[in-house]
Every structure is written in structure tokens, then in C-alpha cells.
User: Fold this.
Amino acid sequence: MIAPTDDKKLKQRREKLALKGFNDESIVNCWHMNDSESPTMWNYYSENAQGIAIESNFSRLCDSFVNCPFEVRIGIITYMDYSRESIPVPPNAFDQLLIKRKEFRDERELRAVASYYPQESNGIRKKKLKGKYLPVDLDILINVIHVSPDSQRWFKDLVGSVSVKYGIEKTIKQSKLYGRV
Assistant:
């Protein structure tokens, strides 16, 4: 016989394992939501003044997955104080991927999450992938390409030539975050 508390613990363990499985089979694409550039984002994600930022919007992001074979769900991150609030058991696995510690709230993050299920052979699950290609329509997704505020002219030119080589004909702007033209 299983005591009621044991049954509850068992249910919580099953839910946790199910959520972990979902996390292992999800591709997460993160976006910063802001009307202007963020020095924090440039410093965190760009090294040696050789970074780019893709400017897009919610509609473009949604529409860019038109040829994606996986279901893509998009949601805004909820930031929580883990020392004061208990993490709620989300109603579904997707919502679990939309919770972060409050210390990261400056990121103002939006996530696109695609779920895929690795092929199985003889009942044996394939090894977890470290990355997965998702087809997106870059012409729809990209509005403007921004280059790092600290980059030199040659880097902007390089980004432009690589973009043209791969058929991405979008405006490329040097960031004016620090007053540089």
C-alpha cells in the first residue's frame, strides 16, 4: 500500500522526469525585447567588438518558422525570486522553459521553443543532440542587422559581404550606442 504522501511524491517525481525529457527534446532560441540597444547585451554576447544583433519583431519571428517541421511555441520569460518564491509546477512542460531567476530580468527575454523527438531504433532512444538545425526564412525574420558599437568599419563590410553571398540583402547598421557614427 502506498501512503497518500508517497503517492504525491511519486507523482511529483514523474512530472519532474517528464519535464526533464521535454527539456532534453527542446530547441530554445532566445531574444532580447527592447525598443533600443542594450550595453549589457552587447557586452555579454559580443566579444572583441565582432558581434551582430538581429533586429526583428514578434510577427516576423512567428512567420519565419513557416517551413519548420517542428511545432514552435513562443513565450515571454517570467522572472522569479527563487529565495522568496517557490517555483510553481507549470501546467505544461513549455511553461517550465519560461521561468528564470530575477537576477536575469534585465535580459527581457522572449523564447521560441521547438520540440522534436529523436528517432528510436529497437526501443533504444538515440543520443541527445547538442544542437539541431531549424529552417527559418531569414528574409522574413531579419529586419535590420546591427554590428557591435565597438567594431571597426572592416567588420561591418565583412558582415555585408557575407550577407550578400548568402542571399541576405538587409540593411546593416553600425550601432550608435556609444555615439559612434
In short: The longest strand covers residues 26-32. Residues 25-174 form one domain. The chain has a mean pLDDT of 81.
